[in-house]
Specification:
- Chain A: Pfam families: AIRS, AIRS_C, FGAR-AT_linker.
- Chain A: Belongs to the FGAMS family.
- Chain A: Its main location: cytoplasm.
- Chain A: It is found in: Cytoplasm.
- The complex is a heterotetramer, with one copy of chain A, one copy of chain B and two copies of chain C.
- By secondary structure, chain A is of the alpha+beta class.
- Chain A has 27 helices and 28 strands.
- Chain A has a seven-stranded mixed β-sheet with strand order 8-10-7-11-9-12-13. In chain A, strands 23-25-22-26-24-27-28 form a seven-stranded mixed β-sheet, with helices on both faces.
- In chain A, helix 7 runs parallel beside helix 8.
- The longest helix of chain A is centred in the first third of the chain and has 21 residues.
- Chain B is built from five helices and eleven strands.
- In chain B, strand 3, helix 2 and strand 4 form a beta-alpha-beta unit.
- Chain C is an alpha+beta fold.
- Classes of the chains: A alpha+beta, B alpha/beta, C alpha+beta.
- Chains in contact: A-B, A-C, A-D, B-C, B-D, C-D.
- Strand 2 of chain C pairs antiparallel with strand 2 of chain D.
- Bound molecules: adenosine-5'-diphosphate and magnesium ion.
Chain lengths: 750, 238, 97, 97
């Protein structure tokens, strides 16, 4: 083994030394490959594990926390929600269509592996500014890829979030979430057990695709990375649809012992993890693996990341039953090995042993690092913001039209209209609201879900930024009338070997954990994506929270949009003006600076409580979270964001220091609510009783949005139709002509 | 009434059609596997939406050779009611049971959105419960819904009144902007000359319950049930 | 034996993809492009046999499955014929921009 | 001047579409078909000019727009060359069965 070969496998000299010590000999090339992927950051979480251990993962309804393919939460009536979020950033940068498509394929397998039928997808996207053609190309390709896979397999994409910032130009983020429903007593795990039981390979044939995908996801981009392109995998949603139906069918029998999808690091990871969880060994012969290409080596077969494959452990004697079921679905299924007693992974090639490694060496004994951390010095300077130097707003109208057209705030219809968000007839709240809501088939319940993460906040203050993301997720779910249950998360960061990045990570995990503890929403799993940087330019540390909430009565879904003329509008939560890290500062003054808005998690919880209580009492007609763009944008969205005709409103605000602060400050823990006028006193009384500020803002009505701020000129008075036009055009304008052109590349089903 | 829903590999609105029939309409439904040779005693056939064979090659091109398609054709020939929704419509076109063909959407993108549709022909078993000029609100969700027919076929369609649905504005005008995919003459659904085979791109099953935001799809399903009831009791198919 | 089947939209059918590509090429600085039309090429590897029989079979495949006669034309070619048509070897594109 | 650009998936890349077509052809009774791969053919009409310069421009178009270098190869051909490759004229498929 030459140092070059070792380095090419992403192993350090020290890691290699340990590897040799464990084996007591030089590894074979196949073994080196296996170690390299299992010890990669992507599979081993070697830099992050010590922090993730601190997260709250327990709860009375949490049946499965981190450690399996997805988290499992009890939702009553014998059913569970199974969900998870995953990143596919690197592959999507290299090949946006296929990268995003296979990301969807992967997260779907994570869910149906556990015996759940996938019912809802969501996507969290980050790109560089749309002025750049390359960013438009990436966005077009990624959206087409997500739609291409999700639409074809028939799982609705019900929501998501999309942001644009310079730092994502060379490192877009593509995180995909999936949620499925299973019967509580029919949850499957990825555990091998029962010495002698057959290990069965099902699904697509193995090709040379994606070899080294896991190591690729564990290194930064540099010149020449694009040369690694042949590792790109092509997704086949049609085959996955067959695989999904076949797996769910076999799961109705009792022939299976365990099942695991083949994702990153393919056959290697699935065999090793199944053996590790079951504390057994697995022995396979690669010659039996169905192959798409000729002359594949054991190294290539073990490391291939061909898509649409699963690994099953069945009960001895049930082989025929399993194989014939899969053949009915026109899928390959082959017994490739057995469960063994000794906890070793043994790989043969036509009988000859080409790798034999103790399972623990690849899992428990994988390297674990407490990497150095250091708080970046530049944070202090960034945190400093002197508002004296920034002139206050003069023209409210112009500013509102401009901010609602900012791609970060503008309608995302250009994106989600490329997704089938309706299939399976469960979608109750469609994309465009704070949270998506689907009904739970066969029950009167519904599930609300939201993806949230403000990279700018995390950049300015990772701990607080992560807290804000959890709080916003919970608030979004509450706006749909649901009680927040639990989260999954995707942590997108730069190079962990850089102490400043590692500090950001440590802080963010701490903030996320604290918020989850306080809000009572445990972490059921997630994903860490490091090395999101190109040529040393890192992304904002980007914490994406996937929040899931439950509604007991699916007919009582809340939406953000104003309903009737005459309804009264309230602001629930603190009335402050915090401009630090806001979309306003970024858009109007090109500033990403200041103190991120402070969050009082106790207040947050109370605000959410009041909202749910008043909704329970039947007093609410709408609820909307104030997020990017602050109060003015939230009000505008309530007017124009719904599926019907836009509605006007007359708003009167008291005082404040600055007009821009009042209109566009992003203080958290705030909701815009409406009620029938006769309910106003009750809401005010309840809020007062709970110690939550509750401000009467005005009434719904007319065809324009008027916002007056006491003692200030230049407030807002605009026809809602005009606001809507600006908002609808924000993203669309970049694609009228371009869409077609940019979308061309990366599409193979021309 | 008993609806048979044909499941092709890659169908994914089969389950939705089933639910719409059972829950929205309160009628019976059963799945028919594409490898089946016979249809059993169903009263109406639905070819559901989805991506049969992944839409590879052309939407519907491979599915139309499924073993069950012989029985479907025979059923249609004898006057049985056949409803093709989205991918089902594409299969009927490929099979030659309806005239025309589908091209990729003009904007070259998949489109999912609620659209307005004007009922152009109420003299079909699928639309006779609609009011004259009724406008239905149904979602479309497809990448290849850009209906095409050559000039002769188009003339025939118009002369014989075979265009059943057109994309329109909420107030019923047929405009370019109201057309989500570039379909010729805003055509969203057509029937055959006998009137017993109907294909449409929009999804009536997705508008089959109040909780889903629209029940307009039920006009189509209820029309089917009522026309089946009107047919003489002795009427037999398959 | 390898054959190539070309399936192209009939001239009378609008080709929005071709139009889009043409527009894109124009913006990218290729005004010399007058028209673009996009079709499919289906490369088929056949068991060796007699060419004329193979051609008949391939044309049948086109009529039955590969082309939709309402909108498409087709053409069958055999590969590896002594031909001047293939001037360049398959090239792996390098420059993504 | 007319050129054809072939854009095909790299050999090592999975072609689900080709696989599905092959399966369909097999069921339709064409067991002689061993492999099917699907690509695009882009027919480009250019203003008349020198062929070698045109070729260079076309290859540039491929790299910049027409091919996706990550998974595709491309090849440029000129039409109407004295070639044995085009044996049949475009055929309008008539018989759909
Ligand atoms: N990539 C996307 N895919 C699907 N839906 C999206 C996407 N991006 C945004 N959306 C939808 O657009 C709406 C607005 O998103 P966002 O601004 O993040 O809302 P909020 O601030 O309330 O969380 C949401 O309903 C969201 O589901
Ligand atoms: Mg948000």
């Amino acid at each position: 083994m030459t140092p070059e070969l070792i380095a090419a496998h992403g192993l350090t000299a020290e890691e290699y030394r340990i590897l040799r010590e464990i084996l007591g000999r030089e590894p074979t090339l196949t073994e080196l490959g296996i170690f390299s992927v299992m010890w990669s950051e992507h599979c081993s979480y070697k830099s992050s594990r010590i922090y993730l251990k601190e997260l709250p993962t327990q709860g009375s309804n949490i049946l499965q926390g981190p450690g399996e393919n997805a988290g499992v939460v009890d939702i009553g009536e014998g059913l569970v929600a199974v969900f998870k979020i995953e990143s596919h950033n690197h592959p999507s940068f290299i090949e946006p269509y296929q990268g995003a498509a296979t990301g969807v394929g992967g997260i779907l397998r994570d869910i149906f592996t556990m015996g759940a039928r996938p019912l809802a997808l969501m996507d969290s996207l980050r790109f560089g500014p749309l002025e750049e053609p390359r960013n438009r190309y990436l966005l077009s390709g990624v959206v087409a890829g997500i739609g291409g896979y999700g639409n074809c397999i028939g799982v609705p994409t019900v929501g998501g979030e999309t942001y644009f910032a310079d730092c994502y130009s060379h490192n877009p983020l593509v995180n995909v979430f999936n949620l499925g429903i299973a019967r509580r007593d029919r949850i499957f795990t990825a555990r091998a057990a029962g010495v002698g039981n057959p290990v069965i390979y099902v699904g697509s044939k193995t090709g040379r695709d994606g070899i080294h995908g896991a190591t690729m996801a564990s290194e930064s981009f540099h010149e020449g990375s694009e040369e690694r392109r042949p590792t790109v995998q092509v997704g086949d949603p049609f085959t996955e649809k067959l695989l999904l139906e076949a797996c769910l069918e076999i799961m109705k029998t009792d022939a299976l012992v365990g099942i695991q999808d083949m994702g990153a690091a393919g056959l290697t990871c699935s065999t090793v993890e199944m053996a590790a969880r079951g504390e057994v060994g697995i022995e396979i012969d690669v010659a039996r693996v169905p192959q798409r290409e000729e002359g594949m080596s054991s190294y290539e077969i073990m490391l291939s990341e061909s898509q649409e494959r699963m690994l099953l452990v069945a009960k001895e004697g049930r082989e025929e039953e399993v194989l014939s079921l899969f053949s009915r679905w026109d899928l390959d299924a082959v017994v490739i090995g057995r469960v063994t007693e000794e906890p070793k992974l043994t790989v043969r090639d036509r009988g000859r042993v080409v790798a034999q490694i103790p399972v623990a060496a690849l899992t428990e004994d994988a390297p674990l690092y407490r990497r150095p951390v250091s708080r970046p010095g530049w944070l202090d300077e960034l945190g400093h913001l002197d508002l004296q130097e920034i002139p206050d707003l003069r023209d409210g109208n112009e500013s509102l039209l401009r901010i609602v057209a900012s791609p970060n705030i503008a309608s995302k219809a250009w994106i989600y209209e490329q997704y089938d968000y309706l299939v399976r007839l469960n979608s109750l709240v469609l994309p465009g609201a704070d949270a998506a809501v689907i009904r739970v088939p066969g029950t009167s319940k519904a599930l609300a879900m939201s993806l949230d993460g403000n990279g700018r906040f995390c950049y300015l203050n990772p701990r607080q930024g992560a807290m804000l993301a959890v709080a916003e997720g919970a608030r979004n779910v509450v706006c749909a009338g649901a009680k927040p249950l639990a989260i999954s998360n995707c942590l997108n960061f730069g190079n962990p070997e850089n102490p400043e990045i590692m500090w950001q990570f440590a802080e963010a995990v701490r903030g996320m954990g604290d918020a989850c503890r306080l809000l009572g929403t445990p972490v059921t799993g997630g994903n860490v994506s490091f090395y999101n940087e190109t040529e040393g330019n890192g992304i904002y540390p980007t914490v994406v929270i996937a929040m899931v909430g439950l509604l007991d009565d699916q007919t009582r879904v809340l939406t953000p949009w104003f309903q009737n003329d005459g309804d009264e509008i309230f602001l629930l939560g603190p009335f402050r003006e915090e401009l630090g890290g806001s979309e306003y500062l970024n858009l109007f003054h090109h500033l990403v600076a200041g103190q991120v808005p402070s969050i009082d998690l106790e207040m947050e919880k109370k605000v959410q409580g009041v909202c749910l209580q008043t909704h329970q009492a039947g007093w609410l007609l709408s609820a909307h979270d104030c997020a990017e763009g602050g109060l003015a944008v939230a009000l505008a969205e309530c007017c124009i964001g719904g599926p019907g005709e836009p509605r006007g409103a007359r708003i009167h605000l008291e005082g404040g220091q600055r007009l821009d602060g009042v209109l566009y400050g992003e203080t958290p823990s705030r909701l815009v609510l409406t009620t029938p006028p006769q309910r106003s006193p009750e809401i005010e009384a309840l809020a007062r009783h709970q110690g939550v500020p509750c401000l009467r803002l005005g009434t719904v009505g007319g065809t324009s949005l008027q916002i007056r701020v006491q003692g200030r000129k230049g407030a807002i008075n605009l026809p809602v139709a005009e606001i809507r036009r600006a908002w609808q055009n924000g993203i669309h304008q970049y694609f009228e002509e371009q869409s077609i052109r940019d979308g061309l590349r990366g599409r193979i089903h021309g | 009434m008993k609806f048979g829903i044909v499941v092709f590999p890659g169908s994914n609105c089969d389950h939705d059609a089933y639910r719409a029939i059972r829950e929205g309409l309160g009628e019976e439904a059963r799945f028919l596997w594409h490898k089946d040779q016979s249809l059993g005693d169903v009263d109406c056939l639905i070819l559901p939406g989805g991506f049969s064979y992944g839409d590879y090659l052309r939407a519907g091109a491979i599915a139309r050779f499924s073993p069950i398609m012989g029985a479907v054709t025979e059923f249609a020939r004898r006057g049985g009611l056949v409803l093709g929704i989205c991918n089902g419509f594409q299969i009927l076109l490929e099979a030659g049971l309806l005239p025309g063909a589908m091209l990729r959407n003009r904007a070259l993108k998949f489109v999912c959105r609620f659209v307005s549709l004007r009922v152009e022909n109420r003299n079909t078993p699928f639309t006779h419960l609609c009011r004259p000029g009724q406008i239905l609100k149904l979602p479309v969700k497809h990448g290849e819904g850009n209906y095409f027919a050559d000039p002769d076929t188009l003339r025939l369609l118009q002369e014989r009144d075979l265009v059943v649905l057109r994309y329109c504005t909420p107030s019923g005008e047929i405009t370019v902007d109201a057309n989500p995919n570039g379909a010729l003459k805003n055509i969203a659904g057509v029937c055959n000359e006998a009137g017993n085979v109907f294909g449409l791109m929009p999804h009536p099953e997705n508008a089959s319950a109040e909780i889903l935001g629209s029940v307009d799809g039920l006009f189509i399903f209820r029309s089917i049930v009522s026309s089946l009831k009107k047919r003489s009791d002795g009427y037999q198919v398959a | 034996m390898r054959a190539r089947v070309f399936v192209t939209l009939k001239r009378s059918v609008l080709d929005p993809q071709g139009k889009a590509i043409q527009g894109a090429l124009e913006t990218l600085g290729y005004p010399e492009v007058e028209e673009v039309r996009v079709g499919k090429v289906i490369e088929i590897t056949l068991k060796d046999g007699e060419r004329s029989a193979a051609r008949a079979r391939l044309e049948e495949m086109c009529r039955r499955l590969l082309a939709n006669p309402v909108i498409e034309d087709y053409r069958v070619e055999f590969e590896a014929e002594p031909s001047g048509a293939r001037e360049t070897e398959p090239t792996s594109a390098k420059d993504p921009a």
